């Protein structure tokens, strides 16, 4: 009898992991980014079995999982913009098909729209939206065929409904992700398949973190946009995602969970910043 996919995992200590996500098999795209690492660490802590997808070479990806003590996880070097790679991945894990997916992969190309070139615009839309549509399509086909009541958590942003200067292609892609989530939820509820979306605020990773620390003008503008007065910790995003994957959210589908520190509220007056 062929080994099931997760029989290949080594657990040298023989520990049984327990938690609110115990035994759930979860795909995480963009798993090795600043937010992704915290997501897979949180899901691992809660007992999930993780399929970590990203662009880094296999050995490098596996090394990062080890460095972060992420057990019960396998790394896959996959470009989800390429449909053939998605199909190969689904076929590889077919015997232990995950019932959950965190669609986190995304990029930002900054600059006013009139100044951006078409390559940057296409890269953002293809990565943040088109690739998520393709991954969703192939997951849905496999779930329906195997009668799996799947659950997708899309990772959007508070700017999916609030304009923010200099990232219009990004905000457009995230607005599309909201429509994708709601459409998937509506079309597939009859199969017991659910789709929800989390909209984080300005997260303390990557370019936002650097600008917050190094650029006073950016910090002043961002501070005005965040009533709670600080950047969001990636661990807080991870906790929101864990909730949407848990049984506590079983009656949620087509929902948008906003966790933005109040950034989508009406901006503070300049004197309030002081």
Q: What would you say this structure looks like, in words?
A:
The chain is α/β, with parallel strands linked by helices. It has one domain: 3-Layer(aba) Sandwich (Rossmann fold). The chain has nine helices and seven strands. The protein has a seven-stranded parallel beta sheet with strand order 3-2-1-4-5-6-7, with helices on both faces. The longest helix has 29 residues. It is globular, with a radius of gyration of 19 Å. About 5% of the residues have low confidence.
Structural key phrases:
single chain, 274 residues, alpha/beta, Rossmann fold, seven-stranded parallel beta sheet, 9 helices, globular
Helix content: 40-55%
**Cα distance spanning the termini:** 68 Å
The percentage of residues in β strands lies in: 5-15%
Mean pLDDT value: 90
Q: How many strand elements?
A: 7
CATH architecture: 3-Layer(aba) Sandwich
* Broad shape: globular
In angstroms, what is the radius of gyration?
A: 19 Å
Q: Extract low-pLDDT stretches.
A: 5-18
Structural class: alpha/beta
**Which strand order do you get reading across the main beta sheet?**
3-2-1-4-5-6-7
CATH class: Alpha Beta
What fold name stands as the CATH topology? Rossmann fold
Layout of helices and strands, plus pairs?
Blueprint: E1 25-29, H1 34-45, E2 49-54, H2 58-67, E3 73-77, H3 83-92, E4 100-103, H4 118-146, E5 151-155, H5 168-188, E6 194-200, H6 206-214, H7 216-225, H8 234-245, E7 256-259, H9 270-273
Parallel strand pairs: 1-2, 1-4, 2-3, 4-5, 5-6, 6-7
Helix pairs in contact: 1-8, 3-4, 4-5, 6-7
